Automatic annotation (TrEMBL):
Alphabetized InterPro entries for the sequence: Endo/exonu/phosph_ase_sf (IPR036691), Swc5/CFDP1/2 (IPR027124)
Protein name, UniProt field: Craniofacial development protein 2-like
Gene3D superfamilies hit by this protein: Endonuclease/exonuclease/phosphatase
Domain of life: Eukaryota
Length: 228
């Protein structure tokens, strides 16, 4: 499977292997910067999102609309389904996690900028992890865009922390055979955890909707409290 975006003129796409084509049960094009597909593979449901974040210098309204659409797409995916996000996010998350150790693995590239911070906040709000930053790699394997003037990392892969932690638990500890509340379920997804995640999502959306500096400062403080 290949996720694709193009510069100059907007556009995103997802190329699916011929063997997987019949497993696609839904495709959704939200905009020329955002699309998703849903597959049922081996007993589980997988959602794949391809994204192309507005570039630096574009109107703030364009950026706000993109992040709101992105927020709605991810929020609409049940936690019982797997999620894979890839795309050109036009931002630098930086080499070190610096306050985002729960979503940034500490193996990034370059210096963080505003676009990178937006992506990190988004990942934090939805309990995602940035896969690119989770493994030690050579510089040439981190850089995703290079010109005669600069080289940067702007393309990222994200997935839910729960998927990562469950796979790690499966490999190290084995699979729990127990039941929770008399039924097989994702026992880690408690009411308390759900409440915290929903609170983070709500405060994050309020931050995106801020229209002036005072409101933005207030909502930023509320978001900082919610994401702890």
């Amino acid at each position: 499977m290949i996720l694709w975006s193009r510069g100059g003129k907007n556009g995103v796409g997802i190329l699916v292997d011929r063997d997987l084509r019949e497993l696609v049960v839904e495709d959704r094009r939200v905009s020329d910067r955002l699309m998703s597909i849903k597959l049922v593979v081996g007993g589980f449901t997988l959602n794949v999102i391809s994204a192309y974040t507005p570039q630096v210098g574009l109107d703030k309204e364009v950026k706000r609309c993109f992040w709101e659409d992105f927020h709605e797409v991810v929020r609409g995916i049940p936690h019982t389904e797997k999620l894979f996000i890839g795309g050109d996010f036009n931002g630098h998350i930086g080499a070190a996690f610096k306050g985002y150790d729960d979503v940034h693995g500490g193996f990034g590239f370059g210096v963080r900028n505003g676009g990178g911070t937006s992506l990190l906040n988004f990942a934090k709000a939805f309990d995602l992890v940035i896969a690119n930053s989770s493994f030690l790699k050579k510089e040439e394997h981190l850089v995703t865009f290079q010109s005669s003037a600069a080289k940067t990392q702007i393309d990222y892969l994200l997935f839910r922390k729960s998927d990562k932690s469950l796979e790690a638990a499966r490999e190290v500890l084995g699979v729990s055979k127990g039941l929770s509340n008399g039924r097989k379920t994702d026992w880690w997804w408690s009411t308390e955890v759900q409440g915290k995640v929903e609170a983070k999502k709500a405060t994050y959306l309020k931050l995106l909707e801020s229209v002036d500096e005072e409101e933005k400062r207030t909502n930023k403080e509320r978001y900082k409290v919610a994401k702890k």
